[in-house]
């Protein structure tokens, strides 16, 4: 699925000059051939294991697919490495230092989550290691002055208002209770939704990640008698929370965001039915991602999960640079900063803060035990 690219003139000229040296030579003086490895690596940074591994898996596989397709016809193979943070801000700094120390690593797809992005961002910036996250949505990440930071999807400053609009205009909830999980992502998103809903908010509460007893929160919700509950957090807690809310008598609409858009949320069974999920991630039913979805399913035996397509786009940006001869971090950073090309999820271009120029937010509903796309929230 390689495409013709449009690059800034300066970057294209630089890439042309580098193209003669990007690949190593074999002992017999050849160019390395189709089985040679270049001394360049791309990495995934995020949860491969742990409670949030379900959200990391599609990102890993989307990145893997892009690299595998590139390597099929490449004179020099790109190596894919993974840094398993388990989605934890506590694990991220040491892993970021490890990644930064590998000079052959010239691009990172990730970090996957907002908390680990905040914890690792300074290290990546100091090392000049460009990152493109396909999934971390806290708006403040772009305000840290990291020239290495890029985001391949809309942040929560767009998702939060879209969720609030959907709650007001489509769900038509007059009273809403807002809950967050105290994470950088969940608390930030819930705060935006709360602000946008304004007087419609009849109560708020904060839970903790890995918490399993939500009885105190359930009591607060049932006392407030809301039409809808919005939860800012991840699927591990949402799966338990929605069950306890239903058991406690809440019969309104449960509304969540991209951190819950994982098949594991369906373990809540009947309690999950009717849940609204917002996400700045394109549905695999959209024509633009049809070929990608087919290729993904052929390689991994399953449909693309949340942010698989965004990860594919992020990896493709780096691979396009490598294809043009870029073989070091400084040149890759310049290449990414000047990138402007059509991806499978959107037009891929970044502003001076690393935010995407093209943003879309979609709604999904849990129906019949499946997460079903409802369309873009305009």
UniProtKB/TrEMBL annotation:
Where is the secretion signal located?
Answer: 1-24
Alphabetical list of Pfam families matching this protein: Peripla_BP_6
**InterPro entries documented for this protein:** Leu-bd (IPR028081), Peripla_BP_I (IPR028082)
Leucine-binding protein domain segment(s) = 40-369
Q: Mind telling me which PROSITE patterns this protein's record contains?
A: PROKAR_LIPOPROTEIN (PS51257)
List keywords of the entry alphabetically.
Answer: Signal
Tree of life domain: Bacteria
Name the family. Belongs to the leucine-binding protein family.
Q: What is this protein called?
A: Branched-chain amino acid ABC transporter substrate-binding protein
* Origin species: Nocardioides albidus
UniProt lineage: Bacteria, Bacillati, Actinomycetota, Actinomycetes, Propionibacteriales
């Amino acid at each position: 699925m390689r495409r013709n690219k449009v690059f800034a003139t300066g970057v294209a000229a630089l890439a042309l000059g580098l193209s003669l040296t990007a690949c190593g030579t074999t002992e017999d003086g050849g160019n390395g051939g189709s089985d040679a490895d270049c001394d360049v690596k791309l990495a995934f940074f995020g949860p491969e294991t742990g409670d949030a591994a379900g959200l990391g898996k599609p990102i890993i596989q989307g990145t893997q697919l892009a690299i595998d397709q590139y390597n099929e016809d490449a004179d020099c193979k790109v190596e894919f490495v993974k840094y398993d943070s388990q989605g934890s801000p506590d694990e991220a700094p040491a892993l970021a230092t490890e990644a930064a120390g590998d000079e052959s690593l010239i691009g990172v797809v990730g970090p996957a989550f907002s908390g680990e992005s905040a914890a690792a961002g300074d290290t990546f910036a100091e090392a000049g290691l460009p990152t493109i996250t396909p999934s971390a949505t806290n708006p403040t990440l772009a305000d840290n002055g990291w020239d290495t930071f890029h985001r391949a999807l809309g942040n929560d400053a767009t998702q939060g208002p879209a969720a609030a609009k959907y709650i007001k205009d489509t769900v038509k909830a007059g009273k809403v209770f807002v809950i967050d999980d105290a994470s950088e992502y969940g608390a930030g998103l819930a705060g935006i939704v709360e602000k946008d809903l304004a007087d419609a908010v009849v109560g708020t509460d904060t839970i903790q990640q890995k918490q399993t007893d939500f009885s105190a929160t359930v009591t607060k919700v049932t006392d407030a008698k809301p039409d809808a509950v919005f939860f800012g957090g991840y699927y591990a807690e949402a799966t338990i929370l929605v069950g306890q809310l239903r058991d406690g008598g809440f019969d309104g609409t449960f509304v969540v965001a991209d951190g819950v858009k994982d098949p594991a949320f369906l373990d809540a069974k009947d309690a999950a039915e009717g849940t609204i999920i917002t996400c700045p991630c394109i549905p695999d039913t959209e024509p633009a991602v049809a070929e990608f979805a087919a290729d993904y399913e052929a390689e991994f035996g399953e449909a693309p999960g949340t942010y698989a397509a965004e990860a594919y786009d992020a990896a493709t940006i780096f691979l396009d640079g490598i294809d043009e001869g870029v073989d070091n971090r400084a040149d890759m950073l310049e290449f990414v900063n000047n990138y402007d090309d059509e991806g499978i999820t959107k037009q891929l271009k970044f502003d001076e803060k690393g935010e995407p120029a093209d943003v879309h937010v979609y709604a999904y509903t849990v129906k019949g035990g499946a997460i079903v796309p409802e369309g873009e929230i305009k």
